[in-house]
Design goal:
Structural class: mainly alpha
Largest sheet: 2 strands, antiparallel
Radius of gyration: 18 Å
Number of helices: 6
Strand order of the largest sheet: 1-2
Strand content: 5-15%
Shape: elongated
Number of strands: 2
């Protein structure tokens, strides 16, 4: 299907949405365009290109892994004082929209630990 066909079909679908649904779609698109958040950065030569919290070397996958292992948000913020609650919210949003990327990063890190032993 061509891009023009896709956009034409999308326009027809959007025209049938309620104003509230259009607003939700707009919010979702804004996040997608911003790659989840402008405060999450993928820089090729920083932390192997992993998604990191704005202007830090703190990878999103590391925060996600800690959180799912039971580390509370308060503990994360205590251990990384340069982070804010907003940074964590942006990280969690990024994880939701980039699940495969984050899981792959966690897997790569886990396999590196095993190889190092």
């Amino acid at each position: 299907m061509s891009t023009t066909d896709t956009l034409t079909k999308t326009e027809k679908i959007i025209s049938g949405l309620s104003d509230g649904e259009k607003l939700e779609l707009l919010k979702w698109l804004a996040k997608e365009v911003k790659n989840g958040s402008l405060d999450i950065q993928n820089t090729q030569n920083v932390m192997g290109g992993a998604a990191c919290i704005r202007e830090t070397r703190i990878p999103v996958w590391l925060l996600h892994q800690a959180h799912r292992q039971g580390v509370s948000e308060a503990e994360i913020l205590n251990n990384y004082p340069q982070l804010t609650a907003s940074d964590l919210a942006n990280a969690w949003d990024y994880v939701k929209s980039h699940k495969v990327e984050i899981e792959n990063a966690i897997s790569r890190n886990d396999s590196t630990k095993v190889a190092a032993w």
